[in-house]
Amino acid sequence: MNPMSINQIKSSFFILLLLLTITACKKYPEDNRFTSPAKTNLITKRGWNSVDIRVSSPSSNLYLDDLTEVISESFEFNKNGAFEALRVVDLRSLGSDSVIYERWNGSWEWESKDKERISIFHNDDESTESWEIMRLNKNDFWIISTNPYDDDVWFIEYEAYDL
User: Fold this and answer.
1) Reported pTM
2) SS3 sequence, the chain?
3) For 75-120, how does the pLDDT look when each residue is reduced to its tens digit (9 = 90+)?
């Protein structure tokens, strides 16, 4: 039996390092134990309040503008594919004395088998948003939201609350 040469050791080490790197580059690295059905449970067993909202809109010259002081949202998703949401737009920090409450409801569904995107259909105006999930665990739900009607891109971080 021949001992391994230095080149074989280097090759083995490189392959091991490559495998570790590839497996570390998952969408939800801190939650790699969650299966697809568990992702549905994560979203539907808790409610979600926004803690950070930023928007980019090249046509409006907005680039990651922080709207957290002005807008807050909460979402509740049901396993049957329905959702309810509340958006509060508090314009008092902008010199107005208006606070606007918007309630939405509609349906949601996974866009892909890997459950990394969600389609949100709003019943009130029949619009659809596409959400890319950036982080999902029992406490955090971070998304990038786009729709086909404008160039707005919303970056929203939600924090879980008990239903």
Assistant:
1) 0.74
2) CCCCCHHHHHHHHHHHHHHHHHHHCCCCHHHCCCCHHHHHHHHHCEEEEEEEEEEEEHHHCEEEEECCCCEEEEEEECCCCEEEEEEEEEHHHHCCCCEEEEEEEEEEEECCCCCCEEEEEECCCCCEEEEEEEEECCCEEEEEEECCCCCCEEEEEEEEEEC
3) 999 999 999 999 999 998 888 899 999 999 999 999 988 899 999 9
Report the alpha-carbon distance of residue 17 to residue 83 in Å, rounded.
43
Residue with tokens 């909460």: 74
End-to-end CA distance of the chain: 64
Task: Give ∠ CA 78-34-45 in degrees, rounded to 5.
Answer: 25
Cβ–Cβ < 8 Å for 119, 106: no
CA distance readout (Å), 134 to 13, 28, 116, 122, 142? 31, 8, 8, 22, 5
Cα 144 to chain centroid distance, Å, stands at 6
What are the angstrom distances between the C-alpha of 17 and each of 9, 12, 27?
Answer: 12, 9, 19
